[in-house]
Design a protein that fits this description.
By secondary structure, the protein is an alpha/beta fold. It has a single domain, classed as Rossmann fold. Helix content is about 25%, strand content about 15%. It has 6 helices and 10 strands, in the order ααβαβαββαβββαβββ. Strands 1, 2, 3, 4, 5, 8, 9 and 10 form an 8-stranded mixed β-sheet that branches. A two-stranded antiparallel sheet has the order 6-7. The C terminus is likely disordered.
Length: about 260
């Protein structure tokens, strides 16, 4: 059955009339009651698998497309307590701003400065970092740089995944044993390719690179997304979150990090 035709069916039409909120109800602030988290020895007790922080914080440039805010990065750094951090897709410098506030050294580069995170030659060739933060493009959902090497300019999903795979391998190679790679990624529906499960692809590529997931997925609520202010003519189930996945490099040497 085509879900887009439900409104033409009298049964579905009657139910839609009953459940659809009035405009004034839809515009009122709504609050979800999150489950209680168990108490433990975490240095960041509010960091759970559900991450709700409606205020972005004073990090990076909020006018920069795709800026994710720095609070999640800050909480991850306070939890894992790394010594040397890297952000190879720096954008407007959100991670660097967080590190400056915490007094932590951060190496940050971006395609706008000519650094291609998907090129093995640009990345450090030996273990150098305790923590790598990355917020890659969600393929071509939003275009970032005019440079054809930018991931958001990948013409096909296959091309995107091939270069994304190399980025993850580069990151794995640059991590110290026990180092962490945190990737914030979201799924999206492409006009041509359909629904693209980029979070699943991220895990698959990370495992192929010899990394392992070291904690729960962190579901980050997407407050302030530009898409939430748009009106679409098509019918779909809106995605209101993205996912932060944290992987680590095992202590032993492994071959998966070779480019």
């Amino acid at each position: 059955m085509n879900h887009n035709t439900h409104s033409a069916n009298p049964f579905y039409a009657s139910r839609l009339k009953r459940v659809a909120p009035r405009t004034e109800e839809r515009d009122r602030p709504a609050y979800a009651r999150l489950p209680l988290a168990p108490r433990n020895a975490s240095p960041v007790p509010h960091l759970t698998s559900l991450y709700h922080f409606h205020r972005a914080g004073e990090y990076g440039d909020r006018s920069y497309p795709g800026n994710c805010g720095g609070n999640l990065i800050k909480d991850l750094l306070l939890y894992f307590q790394p010594a040397i951090i890297c952000d190879p897709m720096a954008g407007s410098g959100t991670c660097r701003d967080v590190c400056d506030e915490l007094g932590l050294p951060c190496f940050s580069w971006d395609i706008h400065q000519g650094f291609d995170a998907c090129d093995a030659k640009d990345f450090p060739s030996s273990p150098a970092f305790d923590f790598i933060w990355s917020h890659p493009p969600y393929w071509r959902q939003k275009l970032y740089a005019d440079n054809e090497r930018d991931l958001s300019r990948s013409p096909t999903l296959e091309h995107f995944l091939r270069r994304y795979r190399q980025f993850i391998r580069n990151s794995a190679r640059a991590l110290k044993p026990g180092g962490k790679l945190a990737i914030l990624m979201g799924d999206y529906s492409d006009r041509e390719a359909g629904f693209v499960p980029l979070t699943w692809h991220t895990k698959r590529l990370a495992f192929d690179a010899g990394l392992r997931q070291c904690c729960t997925d962190i579901i980050r609520f997407s407050h302030g997304a530009s898409s939430s202010k748009k009106v679409y003519r098509s019918s779909f189930i809106p995605g209101l979150h993205d996912v932060c996945m944290v992987f680590d490099r095992p202590e032993q040497t492994f071959e998966g990090v070779q480019p």
